[in-house]
């Protein structure tokens, strides 16, 4: 069938009641509107497209398609829309599709048309079948002979409303499509958001990708994956002087503008010569015709039997490919002699570009600049480097029992240590920070603090108040301000965690509500917040776990991840060996301070026997 014989009709006249009574098709989706996506899919398949809509007609007209309202009053459903479409259809066939199915098949018209032609039918509609399920009809996706309008009008006049009810007396055929997802229709705003890959992901979207997601029993790796999928890099670049780039995250790939080194040069102080002059078993004598200093090309071109005195780094004279170190020759006036086989042709010569070739990638974006990188960048002659702007992280502690250092400690109170461990860990990551002090267990004070943090920072870290205590208002307030979830993670310590993104006055920030216990807060930071913050900074720096032999037995329950404070040292055989520090209670900071590593006992792992290999995270050098 020639596609010019078909008019496409987008059915957009519904109430959108499950979407909060909005005009569904006009809802933003992937950079335009949902209906626009449907129209874009339809246009290549048909001669022309029109729309059936009952509200916001001006907005619909902007879609550059004719718009027709129902003629049957009172939002009578898609059949009323089909009737309006058929009334204005000037082609022999009409292809109807709903406005909320932006993924409709690209071969919908061709396949339905082939079916009506084969069967000499009045109507064809789509059917899908999932494995092991009964076929599912999609009667709103139908190709209808325009001349059958009177049958439909009569059905409507008699009060009929069923999409698959009106064509009982007509010849209708089903067409089976393989891809059920192509007929997916979007009913709620949440669903629309979840499917819109141009919008920042929602937690619902991210968690829907996990099998058996249970916020109350979440494995560590699932929590890490959700966090990884949810946080997004802050895209903001600045140029800094080379030295200031130390510890910062490179924002772009660095391509070498030059060959390093720029010339073939000598690796030794000695004599540059032509490899052809070297004889396999006979000593040679060469005449020295001049000297090449580093930084001062000699311009000399030795002939056969000649050589040039050269310093380390000096540019190789033309025709020379080898250098004999001065210790290996006998010099006599202006000639040198060297024994057979002292060097081979090509020895002690450094090639132009052997370190880096012009145009090659010297460093990748996302790298955290280390001292060697500073040197490398300097070797390329770069005075400035493009880096990600520093991440701004606001943090505060929650709890009426907390006193800040410098204040007197009243009965029942403790000094706030979490703000100091958090400060230390953020500082090591290279973040800018805003220390917001201690916030009382008071809903208004918490809301004010979270809003202020959100408006001034990229990320917020709080500690305390995420478990189940009666004064833990933190969760309630966090939930109110945004897309935040509360987890019980299968780990020890650090079981409760709040995570998400909150909004205030048009600004948003990622939120990590870490548990209050002083060791739990550090473990949660290292194993969840750290990677997320690095990701926001555009950096890629996975936690470096090493293997070490356990010099002790460790009790461990399978089914949760345990982080034990450990001391790593060199065993009697020179291999790394780890033992556990004293008490592992999640309030005991002293053993954390004594430790130089964490022993990571994974989910599935059970008791550790002396001599078993275990994973270890070393604190020193940890970003
Ligand atoms: N019935 C239950 N109780 C608790 C559970 C549970 O599942 N059921 N989980 C326990 C676990 S695990 C942890 S961890 C804590 C986490 O509690 P919160 O995040 O609500 O923290 P708080 O109750 O505010 O404080 C816990 C503890 O830590 C001390 N703390 C808090 N902030 C600081 C700070 N900045 N500096 C020093 N010490 C701090 C606080 O005084 C408490 O002793 O909940 C368990 N309970
Ligand atoms: O996180 Mo809690 O520290 O497991 O006691
Ligand atoms: Mg609590």
Automatic annotation (TrEMBL):
Residues holding Mg(2+): 100
A GO BP entry: Mo-molybdopterin cofactor biosynthetic process
Top-level class of the enzyme under EC nomenclature: transferase
List of residues binding GTP: 11-13, 24, 52, 70, 100
Keyword RNA-binding assigned: no
Keyword annotations: Cytoplasm, GTP-binding, Magnesium, Membrane, Metal-binding, Molybdenum, Molybdenum cofactor biosynthesis, Nucleotide-binding, Nucleotidyltransferase, Transferase, Transmembrane, Transmembrane helix
Domain of life according to the entry: Bacteria
Bilayer-crossing regions: 509-529
SUPFAM superfamilies according to UniProt: MoeA C-terminal domain-like, MoeA N-terminal region -like, Molybdenum cofactor biosynthesis proteins, Nucleotide-diphospho-sugar transferases
Described function: Catalyzes the insertion of molybdate into adenylated molybdopterin with the concomitant release of AMP.
Protein name per the record: Molybdenum cofactor guanylyltransferase
UniProt source species: Telluria aromaticivorans
